[in-house]
Amino acid sequence: ETGVTQTPRHLVMGMTNKKSLKCEQHLGHNAMYWYKQSAKKPLELMFVYNFKEQTENNSVPSRFSPECPNSSHLFLHLHTLQPEDSALYLCASSQETGTTYEQYFGPGTRLTVT
Amino acid sequence: GQQVMQIPQYQHVQEGEDFTTYCNSSTTLSNIQWYKQRPGGHPVFLIQLVKSGEVKKQKRLTFQFGEAKKNSSLHITATQTTDVGTYFCAGLTGNQFYFGTGTSLTVIP
To answer: Between A and B, how many CB-CB pairs are < 8 A?
Structure first.
């Protein structure tokens, strides 16, 4: 248990559905991240929030919409996804962004888009 | 753009054999972190290297940061079945960590 929880753990959705992924960290960290992990590809950083402010948006399609209401919670809102969006979505947190801070990952949400 | 490559992509070893994975960056890194992801699990932080030429050890694991701070290696001595998983490096450039492609290690009992 790393102190980072994600719900749901598994999600199957159609291309016309709207769903949200939730991440919560109990570590008192100020930075939170969304990553996409697909088979045979490196971890892809999607979004970074530091002190609730979005600091990175790595050219992610607008069908993914992040929300960070406070330093402990992070959401990823999904709508009109494509089958190629099927992947493991990992949330992580760290004390702050960059420099020497290690990241603590949640268990991930396994997303399947049908 | 920034790229962090790891080789090999896959490695199968007999239990007791040594294992090494290499991480190479196209640019100079401020520091490098290593993570391990067990099958079906999530990445877990192992260690961070900051100084040029730095070497750190954790029991049977030896981590090294290159002199030019563009490459790093992880060496496991006498592998055990508990070492199974994917090992990722993550290099810091600017304010962002870039994860490597990972090396998947299988240990045959």
So the answer is: 55
Closest Cα to residue B69, out of B16, B10, B25?
Answer: B25
Strand A18-25 and strand A73-79: the pairing is antiparallel
Higher-scoring residue by pLDDT: B72, A45: B72
DSSP one-letter string for A5-56: EEE-SEEEE-TT-EEEEEEEE-S--SEEEEEEE-TTS--EEEEEEETTEEEE
Q: Do B99 and A41 touch (CB under 8 A)?
A: no
Tokens 């563009």 belong to B70
Q: Which of B4, B42, B58, B98 to mutate against chain A (most A CBs within 10 Å)? A: B42
**Are A102 and B43 in contact (CB < 8 Å)?**
no
How far is Cα B76 from Cα A108, in angstroms, rounded to an integer? 27
Other CB atoms within 10 Å distance of the CB of residue B65: 24
- Which residues of chain B make contact with A45, given a CB cutoff of 8 A? 96-99
| Confidence check: pLDDT of A2 > 70 | no
Q: Identify any residues that bridge with B108 across adjacent strands, giving them in sequence order.
A: B14
